[in-house]
């Protein structure tokens, strides 16, 4: 249940009138379709058993497809799969707590009659429901997950300040956190893998609303970069791949504690993230939409391309929003 049809195409010409129209459209979509974590999910209808085979990760997942994981017993595959899904949700809610704080900092300085205020508060409301949804799953899973790395959790309280002092960097960070999870969840929902119905419902709700959130970040960056000078564009062009890779690693790679709890050997971890050809392709596929945006807004210059390649996240940009990775190879 993706809502990509409900958001404006992010390749429309950027000017203030189209930006304001997009903000209004996004705000109205938030009113017409929104979810409540404790209304739209019947939590008591779903039992979570750590040995439930529906928690086994699919073969196309970066962990599920690795020989180490496939050699585990079915019960251990389910336990590790549940732990990984719970930990990603925990990292996701920590990221969204940072996002909510940043959105409030951003909205605090907006003038009257700025449509960004209305949409920012719509998005913050939806993200609050996402954090409740993710935390409720973590609680019911019984898994002792901590989410992001020690460094990520330590600097997390500082990151929302960028929404006031350097908002363009903040919204680049928004995409760096949202795009990887969105790509992962869409690929799972598109697959024929039989997942646990509670996980599936959470993903459906999250993907539906994140389409608007990602759309807003695209529109904001498109509109803001129109007024940037050459030096500012050059700075943003090299900052973007650095932020993308850092936050992607925080979300996708299990922390030291998670690796210990999952029983993931160091050498397997090193190959899984991102030491093999298949894992490096998975990493590149996560950012096809962002690469398309960078091309469109003029911050994919020669030094930036080299840095994207150095970060291991280069590749062909997507031809349209949420193009399947198999088509974007």
Automatic annotation (TrEMBL):
Gene3D superfamilies: Ribonucleotide Reductase, subunit A. GO terms for molecular function: oxidoreductase activity. It comes from the Bacteria. Pfam families: AurF. Transmembrane segments: none annotated. SUPFAM superfamilies: Ferritin-like (SSF47240). This is p-aminobenzoate N-oxygenase AurF. The lineage of its organism: Bacteria, Bacillati, Actinomycetota, Actinomycetes, Micrococcales.
